[in-house]
Amino acid sequence: MTGSEKVNEKLDPKQEREAESRENPSALIVHEAIRIEGEKELNRPSSSIAWSGLAAGLSMGFSMVAEGVLHTFLPDAPWRPLVSSFGYTLGFLIVVLGRQQLFTETTLNVILPLLHSACRLRDVARFWAIVLAANLVGTLIFAVAASSAVFVPEVRASFLALGLEAAQGGFLVLFARAIFAGWLIALMVWLLPAAGSARFLVIVTLAWIVGIAGFAHVIAGSVEVIYAVIAGPLSWVDYLAGYLLPVLAGNIVGGVVLVSMLNHAQVKAEL
């Protein structure tokens, strides 16, 4: 008789149920919770997906606003990026807690149903196309609004600096940075079902790492780079070919390959 069996003999049924309720959920349970959520999202009407995606694109603009405002009014010290990057997390908080559709989240939640059943490919393609288009429209609207006199010139100068910095690096560098961003944001989605009251901390921590490390996020970064296009230093070709294409590809690789496929593989034999 093992030690664990001896301990179990000392527990009555009520105590055993309490012990089970205090266990961390297994990877299989987390996988299935996210897959079921993904199935529900794939079955939503296209109009609902589009409006949710538009809301997410608009909300992500507040990452640029919060980071830009902090950058403007904090003293020019070596630690300033460490603090101003907390502003980058604001858009993610709004989107995740507000249950809005962000493209990089969908590299996990709607991909798990596809890995479970290949017949979902058409549904995933429809969902991705709608969410991505709606997100980008939202970023465009927000960038146009932010370029107006709503913000003081000093803050707008910080927005421009953020956009120029986001667009730097070239195709391969941005692609690599985007893999890490897609990886971390999809991991955030994987962690949330078991996070409980720590959801806020999980979102802030992982989004802050994306911001402070300079990883490239296709939606948050699009607000900044489109702002730089509207302001003048960058062209639409710089944005579409130089930023959007490599970052979108990298986010997909990071989310789908390094999170969805790996975490599906670890529970596939148990399904």
Automatic annotation (TrEMBL):
Gene Ontology CC: plasma membrane
Gene Ontology molecular function terms on file: formate transmembrane transporter activity
InterPro entries xref list: Aquaporin-like (IPR023271), For/NO2_transpt (IPR000292)
Topology of the protein relative to the lipid bilayer: Multi-pass membrane protein
Transmembrane recorded as keyword: yes
Annotated TM spans: 49-70, 127-151, 171-193, 200-220, 240-262
Region (Disordered): 1-24
Keywords tagged on the record: Membrane, Transmembrane, Transmembrane helix
Segments of skewed composition (Basic and acidic residues): 1-23
UniProt cross-references to Pfam families, sorted A to Z: Form_Nir_trans (PF01226)
Compartments (UniProt record): Membrane
Descriptive protein name: Formate/nitrite transporter family protein
Origin species: Flavisphingopyxis soli
